[in-house]
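Entry 14. Structure prediction run on the chain below.
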Amino acid sequence: MHIEPLDDQGRHRLRSILRYDLPSSLVVFLVALPLSLGIAIASGAPVLSGLVAAVVGGIIVGALGGSPLQVSGPAAGLTVVVADLISDFGWAVTCLITVTAGVLQVLLGLSRVARAALAISPVVVHAMLAGIGITIALQQTHVLLGGKSKSTAWHNVIELPGQVIGAHRPGVLLGVLVIAILIAWRWVPAKLARIPGPLVAIVGVTIISVVFPFHVRRIELEGSPLDALQLPDIPDGEWSDVALGVTTVALIASVESLLSAVSVDRMHNGPRTDFNRELIGQGVANVVSGTIGGLPITGVIVRSSTNVNAGAKSRASSIMHGVWILLFTLPFAELVEEIPAAALAGLLIVIGLQLLKPAHIETAMKHGDLAVYVVTAVSVIFLNLLHGVMIGLALAIALTGWRVIRARVEAQPVGEEWRVVVEGACTFLALPRLTRVLASIPAGSNVTLAISVNYLDHAAHQAITDWRRQHEAMGGRVRIQGAVETGQLARRTMRDLFEPERPEAAA
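Output returned:
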C-alpha cells in the first residue's frame, strides 16, 4: 500500500496539533475525569456512565460539532433533571429519553432554528444554572457529612442541622480538605496552576485516605467498564411524562450548549461557531451516549474554557481528550473505587457553587432583572427545573412588556423654569400619568419638554400638542428638546411637535 507524503499544509497542521492540541487535550482530560465521575454520582446514575458520556462527547461532538474549541460531556446543568428521570423511570428508560432527546436535537439542527434558542433571556438561563448549582451543593453537603441526599431541596434544608450533629468526622475532614485545595488553587503560581485543581484535590485526598487509617465510604462500581454499557429500555406507559422528559432534556442541553459556544467564541479569535451544526453534533452524541448507557451530553464551559486557555487551536484537542478518557477507563477503572465519596462530594459542592456567579447577579441588578433572577432560582430549587424556567420566562416577558408600555414621565423645577422628561414608549397607556404630570405645571411658566422615546403614538402626541397649545395660550412658553430612537411615525410626530400648527395657517 502506497502512502502519500504530507504536503506543506498537512505538515503545518500536524505540527500545530502536536504543539498545541495534544498538550491541551491532556489538560482537559485531567479536568474532565473527576468532573464526569462526580456528575454521574450527583445524578444518581451508574458511576461509569459519566465517563461513557465524556468519551462520546469528546470524540463525536469534537468531530461533528460546529464549535471547534468547545468540549462536550456530562454537565452539571442536567444533574437535577436526570436525577428526577432516574427516580421516576429507572436508568434504562432514562437512556431511551437521552436517545430521543438527541434525535430531537438533530431535527432542530436540520431545521436551522438553532439561533432561536439564543433568544431565551440570559438572566433566566443564569438563574436556572444558579438554582441547579445550589441544589447540587445542598444534596452533596449531606453526602459530605456522611449521609444521603434527600428527595427535595426543602428536605435537604430542614434536615441539614440533624445531619451536621451526626456527621461522620473522617469523611467531613476529607471533603473539607478537597474544598480547601480547590479554593487555594486559585492563588498558586502560574506554572503550578497548569495542573488542574480538581485532579490535585481528588488524587491528593484519595492518597491520604489510603495511606492513613481513614474508614470512609468509597465510590462503588457495578461491574467492569464493559458491564456499564447498557441498552435503553421502553417504558411501561406514562408516555406523556416521558415526552415531557425528552423535551426538557433536549431544550436544556441545546440552550446550554449554544450559550456555552457563544462564550467560547468570545475567548478566541479562531473560526466562529456554526450553531446548527453544533446542535446536530450534540444530538448525534446524545443518541450514541444514550444507546450505550451514558449520561446526556452538552457543551461544558468549564472544560471548554480550560481547552482554550491551555492553547488548543482545533477540534483535535476535544477528540483526543475523549480518547484519553477511553484509554484510562478500560484498564484503570478500578482505581475509581479508591476515591472517598466525601471527596467527590466536596468537589461537587464547589462545582455547584461556581454556577452561582456574582457577575451574573451584578448584571441582573444593573439591568433591573434581579427579581427575575431570584424568582427563577428559588423556583428551580424548591419546585423543579421545568416549572422554575417557565415561571422565570413568564416573569421576564411580563417585565419586558411592562417596560415597553410604561413611559417615564417626570416634572421638576429648574431655577425659574420647569423641566419635563418623557422617556420610554409613550403610548395611550401612559396618558393618565402624562396628563397628570403636565397638568401639575403652573400656568404661565416657561417649560422645557425633553422627549427621548423609542415610540410615540398618536394619542400621546395629541395630548402633548393640546397641553402645549393651552399652556402657551395662558402666557407660558414651551420649548421641546429630544429625539425618537426608532420608528418613522414617531419621528414624523416629533417633527410636528417641533413645528406646531400656526394660527394663520389654520385660518
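Residues 8-43 form the longest helix (36 residues).
Filed with the rest of this week's runs.
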